[in-house]
TrEMBL record:
GO terms for molecular function: metal ion binding. InterPro entries: Bact_metal-bind_prot9, ZnuA-like. This is High-affinity zinc uptake system protein ZnuA. Signal peptide: none annotated. Belongs to the bacterial solute-binding protein 9 family. GO terms for biological process: zinc ion transport. The lineage of its organism: Bacteria, Pseudomonadati, Pseudomonadota, Gammaproteobacteria, Enterobacterales.
Length: 106
């Protein structure tokens, strides 16, 4: 009879899937739809602007600034449409600057 020596448990260790724990924050609902389609429910996706709010003249609330700081990835269109995000995204900690992604439409 062959006795298992425990080495088998290490053979499959790299194949174990881990759950993603990132949070994606998009500025507008259309970007939220795109991000949700890409992540397919694996990563939580939230939209910063409430329903009916215009990205052209929106004023951030303190809770919005906190959401920007805590997000793992921020997706926005850019300063031409969402000028209210320019300053808050520039004030993000230097280690997290690369997590704000600007979408360019060709």
């Amino acid at each position: 009879m062959v006795k298992p020596n425990g080495a088998g448990k290490y053979f499959f260790w790299p194949c174990i899937a881990t759950q993603a724990s990132a949070a994606v924050l998009t500025s507008t609902k259309p970007l939220g739809f795109i991000a949700s389609a890409i992540t397919e429910g694996v990563i939580p996706t939230e939209v910063l602007l409430p329903d009916g709010a215009s990205p052209h003249d929106y004023a951030l609330r303190p809770s919005d600034v906190q959401r920007l700081r805590s997000a793992d990835l921020v997706i926005w269109i850019g300063p031409d449409m969402e000028s209210f995000l320019t300053k808050p995204l520039n004030n993000i900690d230097e280690k997290k600057k690369n997590r704000a992604v600007r979408v360019k439409f060709c």
